[in-house]
TrEMBL record:
This is Maltokinase. Residues 43-138 form the Maltokinase N-terminal cap domain. Monomer. It comes from Streptomyces nanshensis. Coiled coil: none annotated. Its EC number is 2.7.1.175. Pfam families: Mak_N_cap. One of its GO terms (molecular function) is ATP binding. Pathway: Glycan biosynthesis; glycogen biosynthesis. InterPro entries: Kinase-like_dom_sf (IPR011009), Mak_N_cap (IPR040999). Keywords: ATP-binding, Carbohydrate metabolism, Glycogen biosynthesis, Glycogen metabolism, Kinase, Nucleotide-binding, Transferase. Belongs to the aminoglycoside phosphotransferase family.
Amino acid sequence: MSEAASSHVALAKSTTSTRNSATPSSTVDGTLLPSLAPLLHAWLPRQRWFAGKGRPVTGFSLVSATEMLPLDGTAGPGLLHLLVRAEQLEQSAHPADDCYQLLVGVRTSLPTTLAAALIGRVEHGPLAGRTVYDALHDPRLAGLLLERFRRPGTLGALRFERTSAIPAGLAPRVLDAEQSNSSLVYGDAYILKIFRRVFPGANPDLELPLALAREGCERVPAPIAWFEAPGPEPLTLGVLQPFLHGARDGWQLALTALTAGRDFVPEARALGRATAEVHTALAKALPTPALHGTQTRQLVARMVQRLEAAADAVPALVPYVPALRTAFDAVTALGHRGGGWAQQRVHGDLHLGQALRSPDGFWSLIDFEGEPARPLDERRRPALPVRDVAGMLRSFDYAARSHRPWNPEWAARCRAAYCEGYALASGTDPRGEPELLRAHETDKAVYEVVYEARHRPDWLPVPMAAIQRLAQSAAA
Ligand SMILES: Nc1ncnc2c1ncn2[C@@H]1O[C@H](COP(=O)(O)OP(=O)(O)O)[C@@H](O)[C@H]1O
Ligand SMILES: O=P(O)(O)O[C@H]1O[C@H](CO)[C@@H](O[C@H]2O[C@H](CO)[C@@H](O)[C@H](O)[C@H]2O)[C@H](O)[C@H]1O
């Protein structure tokens, strides 16, 4: 654990009371976590957002506990905010003690409407005999969270901030989406993203949308409020943004077009333009260090390292490693001939699911967290903008590959249109330096192989098909 993180533990443990309590609650004591641990052992690894799948949890430790509503049952359901480390055996650079955010509802018995949110019945300790559950599914408790943003300030180990007024009484619902975190929608006006795996240090999903809002870029919903666990390096816990009502994500739209046998060219071109506008605004808002010889070698070394780690984790990649490496070596050669490319902050995990198209055809980009599996400092590092372009190009390939019959021309037309739109808005055609584009596409496909092997093994053939194609064209 880093020094910053461990000092945060000390700070958080000493502040487990709520602002409204005169004395720390007797319920939140040293016996709380041991009494919840057997339930969390069974429940946590089943959650889609649990990042340590496939490795047994060997124990839990408490980072902070904040009683947001009394747990003694006197005022209806209780609400407990927990930051908990899940200890696991270390594996290929994945940390052994990820910190997770849990919002735990506490009731004497659970109404049937909340059955799907059940964590379990506590056997001993301060909550013995009570039922605990994922509080985000309880409209009463989800409503309380929004109330906290309306009255910002400190509550136990948590600090709430906002940039503008928030109306009262908006009805909450949990978003039913395949996601790496959890989101609540309030009255179709706001969306609150609750980060599940949390890190000390600035979360780019707050940092970049705030920087873009300052720059006047309207392609990204501006943060209205957020909450964090303060400390030398605060942990960002959640961000509230305007909800783009009626918008549909690019993945659904692309699949609908494929099913109807329709092209997606105008949409792809407009999306290229939107991406370029976001890149231009990010380059204005934040530093743009040049990428020279040594850094080019470092960039390539990181790509090779990721490839090797991926081949360790997914043996199906092993036969392709030598050919894929040539795509990275081509960038080193390009670097020797000059380099000097401008790096900047980028989205970092751009794909069709991260683009929302409003009914008037306007594209917005969301989810600036970067690739969830990478360490935070890597996700915040400036990169070449072609990295995002490569991510979106992979996504057109994914859409075409996941639909029967496979229509490679559909993907090729989208990919070309996207690059055209990008070039029109930025003045730079990403296809102008094919070595850079290919290396970034290869790096992304390697990431996807690991992602799918870990989270959705049925999808593994999709990035593996790209790996074969990229390896063949590198060898040609
Ligand atoms: N501002 C928004 N307006 C409307 N829907 C949104 C907004 N932000 C996110 N969503 C929806 O929530 C889903 C999950 O959001 P995302 O930020 O990608 O979460 P995660 O990082 O957990 O995957 C998106 O796919 C999208 O459908
Ligand atoms: O949206 P997240 O931040 O959770 O991103 C992760 O999950 C994505 C899948 O939901 C994954 O994206 C991959 O699958 C998409 C189709 O479902 C495809 O459009 C993308 O191109 C492909 O990378 C993403 O890689 C992962 O980080």
